[in-house]
Amino acid sequence: MHAGLLGIEELDRAEIEAILARAKDFQPMQSQSLKKLDTLRGKMIVNLFYEASTRTRTSFEIAAKRLGADAVSITASGSSVSKGESLVDTLNTLAAMRPDAIVMRHAASGAPHFLARHLPTPIINAGDGTHEHPTQALLDARTILDRRSALEGLRVAIIGDIAHSRVARSNIHLLSKFGAEIVLCGPASLLPVELAQLAPGGC
Question: What sign results for the dihedral spanned by CA atoms 90, 95, 99, 100?
Answer without folding.
Answer: positive
